[in-house]
Write a structure and sequence with these properties.
single chain; 0% strand; mainly alpha
């Protein structure tokens, strides 16, 4: 039996997204992460990565003006709306506003400049997703021979990115350094997705391997948004290990989520939850000093519950057609 698009249904894809968005919200509750050593770096080695790898499975479009406009509408409208919301709130709180600096942050879209100008770094995901989709569509339009050459070039870039100082990576438009870094991983995931065989024992094999890999990588620094990458010369083991983690985690999380229906509840609203929850996190931080692990769990449930209620209200009144156009 093959794990391919004919088997991963729309509902199962939403369950996968649901698990990922729960992990992302969990990852933004610092009280939980700080109590468990290097869990932050461990979590960031795969949860957002899996979201960015997902388009490699289903996007068969080629790079045309129509498809570019469609994705700009789908990705950049919510990005721009929530960028402006966070910029406005942050400027009011700081009593300071620099339009040129804000324009730079919106254009480049790196977490570094978004943090400086809006106080929220999480929205780097949108420009990165946009550039990733552009790369995929460009690749789809190439001949088989040119694709092989292009893949060799992208492998070279994947190896080179970790050697570039963070200061320069943060200037890459659309946070494109992340898209360049992940592209070869995405193509490989797509190949495995189409060809790998699995059976009823696969979930145990994937899970065991996934946990083992995370234990081996525990304590190492990795973050797409912060441009923390192991390089192949100074840290060859960690470089290879991180690549394997990104691949194995993707299929492990699919197996963990595909039969759990409750994840679908969150997955079908994953984009809305992603955009709303950072504001709720900031809000609850204003009213209480969360410190312990138990308080972190309460904070996680409070943020998730409040975010979900707001999202359902948005969809009930069809505001989603404005915020998240398809």
């Amino acid at each position: 039996m093959k794990l391919n698009s004919k088997q991963l249904t729309f509902e199962q894809t939403n369950r996968f997204k649901g698990l990922l968005i729960l992990l992302i919200v969990f990852g933004h509750i610092s009280q939980l992460l700080e109590q468990i050593g290097s869990l932050h770096a461990t979590l960031y080695s795969f949860h957002v990565v899996s979201f960015l790898l997902l388009p490699f499975l289903f996007n068969k479009n080629q790079l045309t003006l129509k498809n570019i406009n469609k994705n700009i509408r789908r990705i950049y409208i919510p990005y721009t709306i929530f960028f402006l919301l966070s910029l406005t709130a942050y400027s009011i709180m700081q009593e300071h506003f620099e339009p040129l600096s804000a324009l730079r942050a919106w254009t480049i879209g790196s977490s570094y400049y978004l943090k400086i100008d809006t106080g929220l770094r999480v929205f780097w995901f949108f420009p990165t997703l946009m550039f990733t989709v552009i790369l995929i569509m460009f690749f789809n339009g190439l001949s088989k021979k040119i694709k092989k050459i292009f893949l060799g070039f992208m492998l070279l870039i994947h190896i080179t990115i970790p050697f570039i100082p963070k200061f320069y990576l943060f200037y890459f438009p659309l946070s494109s350094y992340i898209s360049f870094y992940l592209f070869i991983i995405g193509v490989f995931v797509n190949y495995l997705y189409k060809h790998i065989n699995y059976n009823k024992y696969s979930i145990w094999i994937y899970s065991s391997l996934f946990i083992l890999l995370l234990l081996l990588a525990y304590g190492s620094d990795f973050s797409l948004a912060s441009a923390l990458f192991p390089n192949i010369i100074d840290q060859p083991f960690n470089f290879i290990l991180q690549d394997i983690i990104m691949i194995v985690s993707f299929f492990t999380l699919i197996h963990w989520s595909k039969n759990i229906k409750i994840f679908e509840t969150f997955g079908k609203y994953s984009l809305a939850i992603f955009t709303i929850h950072p504001f709720i996190v900031q809000l609850v931080n204003k009213f209480y000093q969360w410190e312990t692990f138990t308080e972190g769990l309460i904070k996680f449930l409070l943020v998730l519950g409040t975010t979900y209620m707001i999202v359902r209200i948005i969809y009930y009144f069809k505001i989603n057609t404005i915020l998240y156009p398809r």
